[in-house]
Amino acid sequence: MIALYELAAEYREAAHRLADTDLDEQTIADTLDGMAGEIEQKAVAVAMVIRNIKAEEDAIQQAVDGMVERQKAKAKTVERLKDYLKNNLEACGLKKVESPYFVVSVRANPASVVIDDESAIPTMFLVHPPAPAPRPDKTAIKEAIKAGANVPGAHVSSSTRIDIK
User: Fold this and answer.
1) In this structure, are strands 96-98 and 103-105 parallel, antiparallel, or unpaired?
2) Angle, vertex CA 108, rays to CA 105 and CA 113, nearest 5
3) Quick check: pTM over 0.70?
4) Contacts of 28 (CB under 8 A, 6+ apart)
5) Closest CA to 41 of 88, 4, 16
């Protein structure tokens, strides 16, 4: 079975060769149409493979999304159970419970700062992060070039893509 890229190369070569002959236009068109049919069949086969792989990709993404949701639910459950355990041990005045498997203990966290009113904090205690580095505004550049302006260091480029519906 011949690969699509080989068929495409043969088609281009045949088109160039036939253009240099004295054959009438209908004969050239018929010859190229016959070759194009085989290319179209191969293109359909490749498109089917693309669709199958895309469906598999989508199924994998659904599985990943489902696992992320399950992971988040498990993390929330762990936090709820930790709070439940801590609250009940504190209610009983217990600081430590030992078992052959592990030790559960209620420990004090280090002191932390709570901001009640951010606007009341003196400026000497504020952090001034650096501004983000400037970056090109591609939308503005594209509009300027389309309007006829010359933008050094940039140009508008068009490309193609495969769309399988």
Assistant:
1) antiparallel
2) 150
3) no
4) 18, 19, 21
5) 4
